[in-house]
What we know:
The complex is a heterodimer.
Chain A: E1 13-14, E2 17-18, H1 19-43, H2 51-59, H3 65-98, H4 111-125, H5 133-152, H6 159-183, H7 191-196, H8 204-223, H9 225-231, H10 235-240, H11 245-267, H12 273-285, H13 289-313, H14 322-341
Antiparallel strand pairs in A: 1-2
Chain B: E1 4-13, E2 16-26, E3 31-35, H1 42-49, E4 57-62, E5 65-66, H2 72-76, E6 79-82, H3 94-100, H4 114-126, H5 142-155, E7 160-164, H6 172-189, E8 192-196, H7 200-206, E9 209-214, E10 217-222, H8 224-227, H9 230-237, E11 239-245, E12 251-258
Parallel strand pairs in B: 3-8, 3-9, 6-7, 7-8
Antiparallel strand pairs in B: 1-2, 1-4, 4-5, 9-10, 11-12
Amino acid sequence: MKSSSVDTVNVVEYHGMSRNIWRVGVLVFFALLAMCGIFLSLTQGTTNISINDIFNILQAPIGSANSQIVWNIRMPRTIVGALVGVNLALSGAILQAVMRNPLADPHIIGISSGAGLAGVTIMILYPSMEYLITPIAFVGAMATAVCIYIIAWKNGIKPVRIILAGVAVSAFLSSGISGLMIFYSDRVHGALMWMVGGLAARSWPQVAIIWPYAVVGLLLALLGAQYLNILQLGDEMASGLGVNVELVRIALTAVAALLAASAVSVVGLLGFVGLIVPHAARLLIGSDYRFLLPASALLGIGVVTLSDTFARVIFSPIELPVGIIMAFIGAPFFLFLLRREL
Amino acid sequence: MGIIDVKNITVELSEKTILQDMSLNIMPGEVLSIIGPNGCGKSTLLKAIARINNSKKGVVEFEGTNVESFSHRQFARRLAILTQDPEAPPDLTVYDLVKLGRFPYRSWYSGNNKEDEEQVTWALEQTGMEQMKKRLLVTLSGGERQRAWIAMALAQRPQVLLLDEPTTYLDICHQLEVMQLLTKLNRDLGLTVVMVLHDLNHTLQYSQRIAVMKAGEIIKVGEPQEVITAKLLQEVFGVRADMFIASNGMPAILPIDLIKK
């Protein structure tokens, strides 16, 4: 019986409440946080727009300057940020269970780099086939995941080996991305922004790319919740309970790869969301995936929209890519988890 | 024909042969203990029966049917396994754990039904865990925790229960508690119990048959008294042991010394 990522309570009551009431409460709290993030993202910026104005603009989109800002810039950017938050958080939550690893995150483990390399290759070498970026990025992400499993596999999955294999694969693929970007620097716009993950200039076309994947990914993830719960008992017990472990692991990895790839396709290599969000959600709601997945999705919205708003306003008019904020919070968080869990 | 027939299986792990051309019949309703030195392949045999490890040659049959021809869920309704020291998330309750035992009866879209609820309650009663169902697994003593895992396995409503060293890490009181629970389940439910054990006195007291393994092979199977002899302990474990009859009339052993080779 190892690891104790949730503080133990003797009986299942939190502050005198039954566990399910507590869980619903946490979900409501995360939902409010998400709404708070969305509103701040819409209202704050180089021009501040009041919430009242936002409501008026939403009801009657007239051609005022503020209306233009909200409809063409802030609204799509907020939606992209929210969906990226959902996708990366779900991807991380799934990977943590299927890779049996508290440190799994699509970015750290190299899946995002795999998606990125595949996506950048299309972007640079075959710009006319832009519509293929997300599917190809998915192929890249999945291939990377399979690669990591093969490298790390030795009589079962060992958490430390997965992380080390992931870090190495990630570095290898990132060098490929950097190389391509240097050779074809004329063809890459905002390359730096893309490497750290940013939401600048993300608009309705990016919303159109990501939302179908977010919806499908969320549904597939929720369908997999019970399997994720059972995988937490270890491969052998899961197999004994009637789970086809290899098949389920591949299927759920594919879902995680799909979610990560669609996020990478629109914002680049945004890291740490998939690490921080599921862990923070787990601390409050516990490790039952039927609750953890929706909680991660909601918290993902809140974290990315709030961080992006912060990144836009802190050094205004200079705008930081949100990835810098995430790395700033995420790296210490990673070290904290490393000391506690492995 | 037994309830499980292991027929000439060879199992390799990482290209190393662990089990070599092994056969074993497990009779319905019996308690069978598997003993042998460390690394002789006892756990591998259990996992081969539970089809966690695939055998390279030979077949394992359940009531005459090759275990590979069952779906994963169908098989989990017939046979349950408790591996050594299984892991669980730290915030899992006894009740939630036992409910996972109903997984083989669920389809991916269906939630909890009344049948599942009844079976979970039954499994908790059988193991004396109903008072503790709201407790977190990590807050239980080792013996209680083992009972919770056994309850999960029972919720699968299996005909056969495999256990890999169910008493390791437990003090002697909790060891007896687990052994007596297994005996009770075997007697009351007709559950076939197959377990890997290290404590030879437990095997003498609680099993109807004992299989002795050495270096990937079964070298002897039979009733406890005829299998566990001073000569066998010398050959298999390299120890000199005294055999005597305990106050309850059961045979017991006490290892005295190592035999230098």
